[in-house]
Write a structure and sequence with these properties.
5 strands
Length: 82
């Protein structure tokens, strides 16, 4: 099975928060992830604290063949620029 790195929505209806997860590509929304790799809080006014990623684990999953979604790829780029 193919593993992807994508966002999983959590939080309240009007206050979106996302987990960055490694999950099977065919897994339905809300299913259990293989591993939680970080968090993304787009409503946080402090831009520096919007993205929190465990970069060694993200790099590990990418080495073993996990492909990040477009949005997650931009978040990885933003987090590694810090």
């Amino acid at each position: 099975m193919a593993v992807v790195i994508r966002l999983q929505r959590v939080g309240k209806k009007s206050q979106p928060q996302y987990r960055v997860v490694a999950i099977e590509k065919s897994a339905a929304v809300g299913k259990e992830a293989k591993e939680v790799l970080g968090q993304y809080h787009p409503c946080n006014p402090n831009v520096a604290e919007q993205v929190k990623l465990n970069m060694p684990r993200v790099e590990y999953w990418m080495k073993v063949g996990a492909k990040p979604s477009e949005t997650v790829a931009s978040l990885i780029k933003k987090a590694s620029a810090k």
